[in-house]
Model the fold of this input.
Amino acid sequence: RPGANDDALGTAGVLELARVLKAGPPLERTLVFAVWTAEESGLLGSEAYAVDPIYPLEKTVANLTLDIMQTAGLAHDVILVGEGQSELEDDLERAAAKQDRVVTPENLPENGLFFRADHFSVARRGVPVLLIMGIAGGSDLVDGGRAAGDRWIADYIANCYHQTCDEWDPDWDLAGAVQDIELFRTIVEDLGNSGRWPEWKAGSEYKAIRDASADARRAVD
Done:
């Protein structure tokens, strides 16, 4: 399991975001960049951070997580994991519109990806989260449409997901992965230079946790 896509590509995206944002004008808010170990063993790395974070989770505005990236090229859309959870979905929609893209809900919700990736360690403690994971649903690819996106997922899961062939491939088209990383840059810069606190939506089971921590935060402030 060399892990070239799962999750070296996501790690590369985090590092590139850190490089670009560090080189630009300082944001008004603090950013924390992190990569986690032992996700497949029960989110152990991200859970360790959630238990003992650098900054209190009640003062953490949001968590953005990059996981598996699709390697099939440019897409007309971005796949949303966990529809109906938080206002970060609206941030994603605005950022996607700047790329002339739309947001499409995951079409494989039965895989439960919202509850399996590293962002969940802070989500269940009330921090609004946004996850990009290439296997959440077939993208509407510029070259081949939704059928090609579905085919990419089927091929990756059948042949390389958690298997030894998850290696770098010269045939990868990373343009779509770059699109998604740039979406996160847009969202980070917007939140980082604002006073907004994205909220969980009314139907989310995590809203009450965030509301309680917000009350505690205001009491301290």
